[in-house]
């Protein structure tokens, strides 16, 4: 375990150790390695990431501001569980950002190739019955859509949003039910964009995101009823 002084000495230019650690934890959330409601063990995570507990707590604070972690006095830090209002807000933002990025996109943009790669990964994972990888490929597909905008600031914002999306995915008990309908739709969106039909690609994505939102809101309401 490193000390706070070690953390400062090893701090990368322009980014603190706490920010680096927060980014690493955010990636674990986006990959479903950390799931809604999971307790974040300070000692283990500090050792795994090679930081002090103070640095880790600062990373938790950063993630709390991004609605990814909840800190409860005398109990510790936990991965956040999205509320129904946060799901609605997330998908409202996704429609604004992603559909706008598609409409303004150039069909030969390098991110189109990354969209296609994500679809190919999802198709292979579907054949293998690996739905967690399908979910990760879906996140990568939508991250590539954000890249179409050529905005580093938007990309940073979207990274945090993607982690919130993955937390919402965790509300659905059956990942095949959640992801299966959208793999072929992702493929269709890529082909529309590559064919120089960005408006049609955006319209397809908008309808798709409305459907995904309904699935997640229904899953949240079902889970709430079960708890009640």
Cα separation of the termini: 42 Å
**What structural class is derived from the secondary structure elements?**
mainly alpha
Biggest sheet descriptor: 3 strands, antiparallel
- Work out the helix count: 10
The low-pLDDT segments are 1-14
Tell me what the structure shows.
The structure is a single chain. With 228 residues, the chain is mainly alpha-helical. It has 10 helices and 3 strands, in the order H-H-E-H-H-E-E-H-H-H-H-H-H. The protein has helices at residues 4-9, 17-30, 42-49, 53-65, 84-103, 110-128, 131-147, 152-169, 175-194, 198-227, and strands at 39-40, 69-72, 76-79. The longest helix is centred in the C-terminal third of the chain and has 30 residues, at 198-227. The protein starts with a helix and ends with a helix.
Properties at a glance:
mainly alpha; 228 residues; 3-stranded antiparallel beta sheet; 72% helix; 3 strands
Protein topology:
Elements: H1 4-9, H2 17-30, E1 39-40, H3 42-49, H4 53-65, E2 69-72, E3 76-79, H5 84-103, H6 110-128, H7 131-147, H8 152-169, H9 175-194, H10 198-227
Helix pairs in contact: 2-4, 2-8, 3-4, 5-7, 5-10, 6-7, 6-9, 7-8, 7-9, 9-10
């Amino acid at each position: 375990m490193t000390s706070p002084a070690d953390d400062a000495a090893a701090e990368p230019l322009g980014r603190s150790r706490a920010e680096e650690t927060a980014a690493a934890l955010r990636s674990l959330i986006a990959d479903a390695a950390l799931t809604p409601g999971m307790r974040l063990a300070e000692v283990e995570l500090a050792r795994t990431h090679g930081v002090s507990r103070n640095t880790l707590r600062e990373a938790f604070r950063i993630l709390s501001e991004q609605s990814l972690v909840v800190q409860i006095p005398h109990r510790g830090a936990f991965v956040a569980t999205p509320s129904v209002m946060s799901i609605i807000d997330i998908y409202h933002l996704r429609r604004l950002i992603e559909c706008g990025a598609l409409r303004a996109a150039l069909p030969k943009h390098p991110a189109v190739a990354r969209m296609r790669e994500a679809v190919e990964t999802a198709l292979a994972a579907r054949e293998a019955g690996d739905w967690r990888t399908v979910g990760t490929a879906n996140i990568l597909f939508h991250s590539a859509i954000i890249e179409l905008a050529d905005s580093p600031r938007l990309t940073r914002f979207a990274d945090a949003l993607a982690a919130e999306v993955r937390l919402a995915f965790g509300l659905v008990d059956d990942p095949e039910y959640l992801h299966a309908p959208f793999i072929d739709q992702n493929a269709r969106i890529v082909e529309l964009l590559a064919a120089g039909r960005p408006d049609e690609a955006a319209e397809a994505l908008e309808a798709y995101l409305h459907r995904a939102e309904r699935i997640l809101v229904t899953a949240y309401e079902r889970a709430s009823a079960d708890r009640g």
